[in-house]
Amino acid sequence: MKPVAKDFIPASRIALADDHLRKAIFAGAMRPYLQAAERWAETSGRERLRTQAREARVRALRKLPELLERLEKNLLSRGAKVLWAADAEEANRLIAQECVARDARLVVKGKSMVTEETGLNQHLERAGMEVVESDLGEFIIQLAGETPSHIIAPVLHKSKDAIAKLFSERLGLPLTDDPAEMMRAARSYLREKFLRADVGISGVNLAVAETGGLVLVTNEGNGRMVTTLPRTHIAVMGLERVVESWKDLASIVQLLPRVATGQSVSTYVSIIHGPRQQGEPDGPEELVLVIVDNGRSAILNSDYAESLLCIRCGACLNACPVYRRVGGHAYGWVYPGPIGSVISPLLLGLAEAPDLPMASSLCGACRDACPVKIDLPEMLVRLRAEPPMRRKGGRMMSLGMKMWRYVMLHPSVYRWGLAATRFLTRPWHGEDGSLRGLPGPASAWLESRDLPAPAPRSFRALYRGPER
Amino acid sequence: MPEKPVAIFATCLVDSLYPDIGMGMVRVLDRLGIPHTLPPAQTCCGQPAFNAGFRDDARAVGRAFVRAFRDCEAIVAPSGSCVAYVRSHLPHLLDGTPEHGEALGLAERTWEFSEYVVDVLHKPDLGARLESPLRVALHNGCHAMRFGGIERQPRILLENVRGLTLADFERSEECCGLGGLFSVKMPQISTAMMEDKIAALLASGVDVVLTGDAGCLMHLNGGLARAGHSLRVRHYAELLGEAL
Ligand code: SF4
């Protein structure tokens, strides 16, 4: 997926200007948010669970090289192949090579964010393969030629009517507003693909190092098809998606459906320990795990390592008042919402996503929602302090801050400055004591909001000490 | 009862734009017989610069803030946002400066107004009374609520005001869209958030909206006035001061 994260501000206006889209996005984010809140309220020991999950992730990052090695060793011992990709390009190349070596024509895919990140589909298609997404949401997105707008609910921005229309145009289904019927149509279309596919490519929610297990948490069952029906299964994971033990995994697997969709359990949890072993009746003949770095180890060694704790649950998106209004596409890349505003600049480079760290009122709703307690606002503020961001803010901004600093460091100048501001803005004072039509930096505010003029007498001028 | 007078940190917004909020707070303290002072060297805690990513400027102003209040036993401010900043961010920011230790101490002695009255002075009921009944919506500022843990205290104070009824409104925990620099860097998104908040407040049919932060107040009143609505947001310190 080609990043256009540079254009957040213009892109955000698309949803703001489109009533239907805006309503769909708002409802789509609120629904899981409210359901998650309900589930959360009835979960016993929830804060303990959250702490355990966080600790599990923190421990994993601390021991990352060791855990990845153990994972690799365990998988190799059962006949899987493990490949390491330093960046997106290498990941795509390695995966394509594996496919070509097996003469693959048709590839079915399960949901995978990291392959969205590397743009794998386009890469395989360019190499002449047919690639079919099998997660219903991703399938719809693929039919429509769009990109996902949410990490859990890729079609959050699309209305049921739009999907019906798409299905009738692309799959020849008679127009229907019955979701079950649309699902059936997608299912029978996909079933045929599953049976013919040469390779199945899936993501990995988390891998468990102690035994070398790949864990997939899904709701539709397509994950099982992708990983068992084709002769070859290629699993792709970001290198941070590992935990040490099954105990660690347990706390996360309990949390994930609760905060992501508001379910107490997800429909399927698949655990894969390798290709089909001797004497086993089913499963793929071959398993290839591709572990992708693509900027992650650099993040691990930076002030932003905490962002790698993320389990991609999407809760911070649903909780975010900005996401709720502009939707995922405005963020211009795979990861939208607060977590996207943190990791897109880190993965793409700060200059590629200069506005994202500012796309937050720092209200903290994401921090409260995050099951592993990532301090997203803290990281957004930290990113704002990075030099490329500051340049983007412009020289005027820095100059303004220097002036502000000078004034705030000198109480007498501050007092005098207040009186001077009141005097100088007098031409713009309205009858009700508000400023109107003031030029300069205030104009962005004044477009939709009044601004009070400085009070005739400041608090410090009015203050007389305690009443006697 | 505190021995030394409690130090008022007016905050820059209240000092310059909304002095009546500060006076309301002073009135409440006077009625409770709490001596107070206004340390003259104070200006701002530095939060605006910090949130905008200008850490050096925030650090300089934060150090001056610490020096201005270093001798104070307790500090009270009519803003949960500033208090949350002084508590959770400032000490960290001043790490490595001579004021770091003092900042850590200050973080523990700084209180938001309603928090100070309820949790420190243990005066949940001020004996306040309104002349005519008032239906009120309480808008909690995000920083106060999520970073300062201030949510229960203003509610307690208001529930004990005779003649005042608190009303619920839709999605009361959602941000009003201010967010400092965000409001001018992304005015359309900020405004969309504000408009939804205003619509929810109007729909609740309250007579007045109360909040504990001058920032939210400025934002919402700016939007209400611009759209021609008569509903207004007030700071609860001001209302409590009047109702005593
Ligand atoms: S940052 Fe937290 S809330 Fe957001 S997707 Fe990641 S784990 Fe979920």
Give structural notes.
- The complex is a heterodimer of chains A (468) and B (244).
- Chain A has 468 residues and is an alpha/beta fold.
- Chain A contains 22 helices and twelve strands.
- In chain A, a hairpin with a 4-residue loop joins strand 5 and strand 6.
- A four-stranded parallel β-sheet of chain B has the order 2-1-3-4, sandwiched between helices.
- In chain B, helix 8 packs across helix 10 and helix 12 crosses helix 13.
- In chain B, 51% of the residues lie in helices and 14% in strands.
- In chain B, 59% of the residues are buried.
- Chain B is globular and about 50 Å long.
- In chain B, helix 13 links the parallel strand 7 and strand 8.
- Chains A and B meet through helix 1, helix 15, helix 17, helix 18 and helix 19 of A and helix 1, helix 2, strand 2, helix 3 and helix 4 of B.
- Iron/sulfur cluster binds next to helix 14 of chain A.
Give the helices and strands of chain B as they follow along the chain. Answer: EHHEHHEHHHEHEHHEHHEHEH
Number of helices of chain A: 22
- Helicity level of chain A, as a percent range? 40-55%
Q: How far from one another are the termini of chain B? A: 20 Å
Q: Summarize the main sheet of chain A.
A: 6 strands, parallel
